[in-house]
Design a protein that fits this description.
The chain has about 170 residues and is mainly alpha-helical. The protein has helices at about 1-25, 30-40, 40-45, 50-70, 80-95, 95-110, 110-135, 140-160. The chain has one domain (about 50-170): Orthogonal Bundle (Tetracycline Repressor, domain 2). It has eight helices and no strands. The mean pLDDT is about 90.
Length: about 170
């Protein structure tokens, strides 16, 4: 029971961190802000995460893992794979907007550990997508994956800065 409660508290801190980092950014967020959001004392945050950076990386890793899992759950015919993966990502973005914001923030953080976590997360998504597109028989895989990922990153930026015109194809039709 105590283990379960401890894991729940860690999860609450992580969720509070996701929300606060998404709203305030990395540099403007303190562990005191996160503790306040979680309804706990600041020292209690440090029982689970040694630093703000460690908490941010845990949140960022969750975001990337959730994207990977979303793509893995897509069950589509090869000719529908790209469209289905895009639809799955759009749904994920609506369900977890804080994690989408965290990806944009993660790209802007200059600390080496955060950069490393961002690179690792993006690389794992790129690698999985290459493998998945190859298995589906998609031609020009590297170009198609680059376009797919670039569009995803543009969607993230569009959401983050509230500029839907960056990706709204309807205006040009």
């Amino acid at each position: 029971m105590a283990r379960s409660s401890k894991e729940n508290r860690k999860e609450e801190i992580l969720e509070a961190g996701l929300e606060v980092f998404a709203k305030r950014g990395y540099y403007n967020t303190t562990t005191a802000h996160i503790a306040e959001k979680a309804g706990i004392s600041q020292p209690y945050v440090f029982r689970f995460f040694k630093t703000k950076e460690e908490l941010f990386i845990a949140a960022l890793e969750r975001a990337f893992e959730r994207i990977l899992q979303t793509f893995k759950n897509v069950d589509a015919a090869p000719e529908q794979l790209v469209e289905e993966m895009i639809a799955a990502y759009e749904e994920l973005s609506a369900l977890y907007p804080n994690e989408i914001a965290l990806q944009v923030i993660g790209i802007s953080v200059t600390e080496n550990a955060v950069r490393s976590a961002t690179k690792k997360g993006l690389s794992s998504i790129q690698s999985y997508t290459v493998d998945r597109f190859k298995a589906a028989g998609i031609e020009n895989v590297e170009r198609e994956v680059t376009t797919f990922l670039a569009r995803g990153i543009l969607c993230n930026i569009s959401y983050f800065i509230d500029l839907p015109e960056l990706i709204d194809d309807q205006k040009n039709k």
